[in-house]
Amino acid sequence: MVLQDKVALVTGAGRRVGRTIALALAERGAAVALHCRNSRAQAESAAAEIAARGGRARVLTADLESIAAAEGLIADTIGAFGRIDVLVNSAAVFTRGAIDGISERDWDETFAVNLKAPFFLARAAGAAMRRQGAGKIINLSDIAARRPFLNYIPYSIAKAGLEAMTIALARALAPEVQVNAIALGIVAPPEDFDRAELERLVRRIPVRRIGAPEDAARAAVFLCEAADFATGATLTLDGGRLIG
Ligand SMILES: NC(=O)c1ccc[n+]([C@@H]2O[C@H](COP(=O)([O-])OP(=O)(O)OC[C@H]3O[C@@H](n4cnc5c(N)ncnc54)[C@H](OP(=O)(O)O)[C@@H]3O)[C@@H](O)[C@H]2O)c1
Q: Which residues contact 167 (CB under 8 A, 6 or more apart)?
């Protein structure tokens, strides 16, 4: 799919990885709906950056714990730009806690934002894409789906579910829509990670460095523009961590 003049919705696009993906899709000529919840000011600044480069962008707010809000986000994207060609599910919660400290609230929030919302977003966007005849859905996963993190058990399980969902939706929305995932290793450390923790992590990564949000953005552009034959696939970008 050529991104020029297409319409992309990126969730969690105010900060970090989502923002970088939104800017990269805009750089390729797509009009971008930047979803945020609390990071409105940052999303507005990203939209202003896109507009300054001659692109089209709109900021849309939604709490993705609500399915009605998630479905409304797809309707708002279509309302703003007339269509939707690309959905990037990047918004997520990443709540730290050992097994005994996991509350029902942590579990419900993680599954609502990281797994349930991507499904209902993809279903609504997928229906519009099928009517248009083509579309791309990209789910941001994590190597934790295959090697669960002990301090992030609900997160890891939700990401495993997201990879299963990627396969299910790739089949359900074929042949018009391709659905793929990007399983990231560390590309933007959580803000509460200290330097020692990061150094310990880097020693376990074969390429001996962490990645960057731009690695995810390049992969998203690749999946949209150069990988029409890929569907139901998960592209792992982890510096070799899973094989190290
Ligand atoms: N960063 C990494 O190294 C890394 C590694 C592996 C996988 N990933 C995956 O890549 C994606 C992006 O990572 P990231 O580090 O950029 O994510 P992040 O900073 O942890 O979160 C992205 C955004 O999710 C949004 N969000 C959280 N709860 C929400 C809710 N209830 N409703 C709506 N939005 C909500 C927040 O938006 P607001 O700020 O607007 O509230 C937040 O800015 C995630 O899916 C993550 O699991 C990242």
A: 232
> Residue 81: which of 144, 125, 136, 23 has the closest Cα?
125
Give the pLDDT mean for 85-93. Answer: 99
Percentages helix, strand, coil for the chain (3-state, rounded to 5) are 50, 15, 35
pLDDT band at 120 (very low <50, low <70, confident <90, very high): very high
Computed over every residue of the chain, the mean pLDDT equals: 97
pLDDT > 90? residue 219: yes
Does residue 233 fall inside a structural domain? yes
Atom of ligand 1 nearest to the CA of 187: 3
In a domain, 57, yes or no: yes
67-81 and 117-132 helices cross at what angle (nearest 10)? 30
In a domain, 30, yes or no: yes
Judge whether residue 193 has pLDDT over 90.
no
Distance from C-alpha of 63 to C-alpha of 69, rounded to nearest angstrom: 6
Range of the domain at 139: 7-237
- Whether ligand 1 lies within 6 angstroms of the CB of 235 is answered as no
pTM as predicted: 0.98
What pLDDT shows up at residue 48?
98
DSSP state of 238: S
Q: Is 186 in the pocket of ligand 1 (CB under 6 A)?
A: yes
151 class by beta-carbon count within 10 Å (0-12 exposed, 13-18 middle, 19+ buried): middle
What single-letter amino acid sits at 20?
T
Evaluate whether residue 165 is within a structural domain: yes
Please name the residue ranges forming H helices in 113-152: 117-132
The residue whose C-alpha atom lies closest to atom 16 belonging to ligand 1 is: 17
Task: Specify the CATH number for the domain of residue 134.
Answer: 3.40.50.720
